[in-house]
Amino acid sequence: MIVLGIETSCDETAVALYDAQRGVLSHHLHSQVAQHATYGGVVPELASRDHIRHVLPLIDACLRDAGVGTSAIGGVAYTAGPGLIGALLVGAAVAKGLAWTWGVPALGVHHMEGHLLAPLLETRPPRFPFLALLVSGGHTLLVHVERLGVYRILGESQDDAAGEAFDKAAMMLGLSYPGGPQLARLAEQGRARFQFPRPMTDRPGLAFSFSGLKTYTYHALQNTAQSQQDKADIAYAFQEAVAETFVIKCRRALQQTGLERLVIAGGVSANRRLRERLAALAQECSAELYCPRLEFCTDNGAMIAYVGALRLAAGQREDQALSVRARWPLDTLTPPP
Ligand code: KG4
Ligand code: ZN
Question: What's the N-to-C CA distance of the chain in angstroms?
């Protein structure tokens, strides 16, 4: 079955076609970053309007690229949450409308389940069960993944998500939104000069807290002349603190659960230093590390099409009502019937 996936939860309109036999057939994305950069963050109403402009041309481009006619499509998956409510409604309305026109089922997918299972799109996918570190702009979760739809949250951030912390620190360093990838680039020129804390690692448990690192970034910056080298050194200290915090918590979680496979996913999993450090940890713990390809770390349509395909194939269906959720805890999901 070929499934069309539509992702519009935040500031990227992303569409993909996934075939259960052949894998991802095509995927396209339009980023709104330039529009929101002026405001230093996502403006929800601008996001909704921009999704309306781009979603149908992107679907056309996917069909054209894959050489697939609409009659070949067996289902339409869309992100039903969590995310910006107006942005979600655009994807949901388009998905439901197309599915009704084509006489196929539509299915709402959880955005974080999409990120969580994105590594399964790779040629060497992880087997269930596995430990997942899900790190995006809105979430920081350590999840025990039993199988499709059975997720136990072992730890999460009590304040800022990792990506959010990257973006806020980047803004202090004078980098434009979203600053995560730029902070990572700046850190490459940095030296080990400042020592930032590894939050919440001095006590048992798997919870995270990243808001304090903002304060450290601010004070470190105030105590320097704020030269380019100073900023690079601070970016380095920040990135090391985040990466090492994740290493400590993932080590703990691997030991506690006895799991032998570690998956990282979500936008921050594109961070090279974090991947490097977690690869070393996996080796130390005789575990295997699995990451999505870089373009499937950040928001994309393929992960939504994929989860939709799995759940539709298992017989999951929903009614015609249009319902999206701004908030939606991952561990309230259930397996398909
Ligand atoms: O998963 P994602 O695309 O969207 C959400 O679901 O939130 O994640 C976006 C987040 C942003 O905060 C962005 O700054 C961060 O991922 N990010 C990175 C890197 N690439 C993206 N953070 C650190 N290093 C990177 N290379
Ligand atoms: Zn995301």
Answer: 18
